[in-house]
Amino acid sequence: RFVNDPIGLRSKMGELDALISGSFAIQFFERVTWPSSDLDMYVKEGEGSDALCAYLVESEGYTLQATKATGDLPYAVRQFTHIWKYTGPIRGSEPEQVTEVHVIATSNNPINAILEGFYSTTVLNFITWNKAYALCPLTTFVQKRGYLLHDSDEYLASLVDKYTQRGWNIQPTMSPEDQKVNHSVNFHRRVGDRFTWKIPFDVRNVKCSKTPDAVLERVFFLFRQTSRGILSLSLQALEFEFPALHSDYTC
Question: Most exposed: 69, 100, 189, 223, by fewest CB within 10 Å?
């Protein structure tokens, strides 16, 4: 739907450590298609975001339509630095139908920005070059329930309303039953842990990433409740770099 060469895009994602998240990841796990939805791709700013933008234009025929600094947006996430909006034809459709791809640059590793910035547990899902991850699958895809991770305002209310219309019940506070130790909305979590729904992909003909999966699957994060009962999520520790490891780690 979005690209002519999915294998080429996955290879580029592996090269740049880029992630797909947002509504596309939810549709993937739900096995549905929302015709008006777009594709959100997250990549570290600088060479990574430049390379991904160039790939969409040169290899997939996309056209840049708009660019914004995230400080200009109503919902500004601290680690999101820039957003580029590209449009192109929906593959296999009539010529007048278009689709959108958003390239979102992050100041840190994309997974850090997603975990610290997303507004609800419902959207804590993402796709790498070789796997798909849903961090709160029980509440999101079985119970069709979610919890806010930030104080609500007018813009966040509009996002909640969008997913309410799609069948989710997003609540401002955590229910007592979800505070059980054996629940995916547990306080101490790790990407890829036993609460994560993880789907591996066929990687034949895909150029493998130089970054091992263990880097992503050793990202630890915490759910916390504020004094008002609102759930929040934070990374458990800071990112560090060590030249011998050849990768950035968060642990």
Answer: 69
Q: Which residue has the higher pLDDT, 249 or 185?
A: 185
pLDDT of residue 197: 97
**Distance, CA of 15 to CA of 8 (rounded, Å):** 11
pLDDT tens for 83-129 read 999 999 777 655 567 899 999 999 989 999 899 888 899 999 999 99
Q: How many Å apart are CA 179 and CA 229, to the nearest integer?
A: 12
CB 153 within 8 A of CB 143: no
What does pTM read for this prediction?
Answer: 0.89
Alpha-carbon distances of 133 from 50, 75, 111, 154, rounded to whole Å = 25, 24, 11, 29
Half-sphere exposure (Cβ direction) of 183: Cα atoms closer than 13 Å: 16
Q: Which residues of 134-165 are buried (b: 16+ CB within 10 A; e: fewer)?
A: bbbbbbbbeeebbbbbbeeeeebeebbeebee
Say if CB 185 and CB 124 are below 8 A apart. Answer: no
- Among the residues of the chain, which ranges form H helices? 6-16, 23-30, 47-60, 110-117, 137, 154-165, 213-216
Q: Which DSSP symbol is given to 120?
A: B
> What pLDDT sits at residue 244?
46
